[in-house]
């Protein structure tokens, strides 16, 4: 098979289908989602059998346990997928909404209408639940989509593709509204990210390695984040209880997520009061501390204490490891953040109003928080209802990306025969 | 001079200055704008002398009359620049505004704060007024900017750069907040569009040739449009007077602008009634008509009538030339538009409510209009107050781009010690 030609074919089909997807009423799109949910429930046993094929092959190939874990489709995972689709149905339809309507001196009325982007390409690892989540969000937002999941999940993804197709057909939507790439050839990814004539945006979901590879080659714009080097800054005016609670939660609630704190900055004034208590809390969770010289002095004698090196400030550990640095105050903290942050999420802990306001205004990251754990940087926690991904870029969507990030605003003009004089 | 190293230096300086620009109060940014306006008024004679140097050199080099025209800085052009700056002062400050504030079940309050993009690179032709307009919009929106104007305007741009620097200094803003590239070496452009670490977005202002060149090389995202192949569709239910007025205005108000109509589509039912009358109006303006077979038959005998070829539907004439096609109705019209349009601006003329609504919803262009001339697709006409450029892309800004297009929304979270459970 000529993979490039095959992907171009999928692209042409997606582009053609995107018009019908965009035109479809809210009711039609919701109907498709409900039919897919029902079909998944009905065929749960068959899905698990397909998944078992994938798991057997993956085990035989020696896939890492963490990856096997993500590949596995338990009853609970199936129920979560089905629930997710029904929750998407309940979300307000972003499409067609007109905002900012104004009457202009010329007599024309101008507003902005929210419309689908067109064709979304999703590239993800061997996680079958993403197939359903992503298809659901794209259908709801009136987009056509091309899904390319990790090859280890091919049998399960094929089975899911069937059920998605059934739902689309049942609602009268085009079969090519959602296409699952049915080849494990990696050249399919290269083709998908270099056909801007057919694909409007790529949403990659996966590790830093995947994203870096895509960034080098993609000519289609991406909604992506490379990594999450998130900071918490404990200001000299911090409430110590809040500081301990937030710094502990931001690091230890989950280690492998992009909104987990990787570097803790502490104001010099408050460091002797806060760092030893925090070190005890971290010690209980076996978190290794990589400390700059000043915090190292304060913490000397605590377990799991290591001297930080320059590379630590640039590292997303995704592990029970935290880099710690004492700073003079908010200016040095913001300087450090603006130098080393991946612009994902940063938080200040402070009771000082002006410091809080300065931090919110001056820190150039997708999410900036006062007195809250960085772990809140999440589409569900922000009330987006669902999350297709996270963007650390500044253009288009920034931060957690929900349905709105899969849409665009076009200008609509209501005239009465006006011409320009 | 090592141009790449020099541009990297400008980039580093811009990035550093961008923080102070973003932090500056509304009053500070407005003060800079007013000081620049005053300085331009004061030094009008010197600016005209610098411009005369450019004009003499350009004439000696045999620059085309149209380009000389754009290069020339008349008293009126100077007054317009000064007025433009003062109008920018009067615009509301987009920066710092928080929207969509919600209290979430967790207790956190989440909103979105409008912030500058950071560093904007502007690449434009030899038009000194763009130097001032672009600097003004970037200062107002709290961005640092690197301006690279056409080399024929170098003396005038240098003089303007001095006055901009004077205004920035007078307001206490960093000297590198606005940098004018002071070399005519074209390698400067290549460097500017390939340093995403220092430049957040490029706004190219110029012809299709420039944009195509940049698109091939740029690794920095661009806010751009390649061309404007705009359509007017006269529906079978059109009010004929409105149709004649709009079709005439959309083509003949100005020939060289990107929102000028290039293709007229007419419903079969109404073509015999509308096309001959329209042809007379166009004849009076010496507009050449390139007609498909069906409209050719209707118009046979009219002056300046030519048979259209496939290439015509893909051509932005920027001239008194119009391609004309008879279509069965709105479906064929939208099919033609979605095939050939550059996604800039399309209009329908109709009294039929459902056709109007379908056209607005289903045509996938940056501006879609009912009963109005395509010439209205413009930042001032839409009430943006000013226009830095136009985007035919769907991500980030779409259509005429004003101050808001030079900004981004970041999430801000107001907490009270919340952690994720």
From TrEMBL, chains A, B:
It is found in: Cytoplasm. Its EC number is 1.2.1.41. The keyword Disulfide bond does not apply. Its main location: cytoplasm. SUPFAM superfamilies: ALDH-like. PROSITE patterns: PROA. Pathway: Amino-acid biosynthesis; L-proline biosynthesis; L-glutamate 5-semialdehyde from L-glutamate: step 2/2. It comes from the Bacteria. Residues 8-288, 313-377 form the Aldehyde dehydrogenase domain. The keyword Transmembrane does not apply. One of its GO terms (molecular function) is glutamate-5-semialdehyde dehydrogenase activity. Coiled coil: none annotated. Keywords: Amino-acid biosynthesis, Cytoplasm, NADP, Oxidoreductase, Proline biosynthesis. It catalyses: L-glutamate 5-semialdehyde + phosphate + NADP(+) = L-glutamyl 5-phosphate + NADPH + H(+). PANTHER family: DELTA-1-PYRROLINE-5-CARBOXYLATE SYNTHASE, GLUTAMATE SEMIALDEHYDE DEHYDROGENASE. HAMAP family: ProA. Catalyzes the NADPH-dependent reduction of L-glutamate 5-phosphate into L-glutamate 5-semialdehyde and phosphate. The product spontaneously undergoes cyclization to form 1-pyrroline-5-carboxylate. Belongs to the gamma-glutamyl phosphate reductase family. This is Gamma-glutamyl phosphate reductase. It comes from Massilia solisilvae.
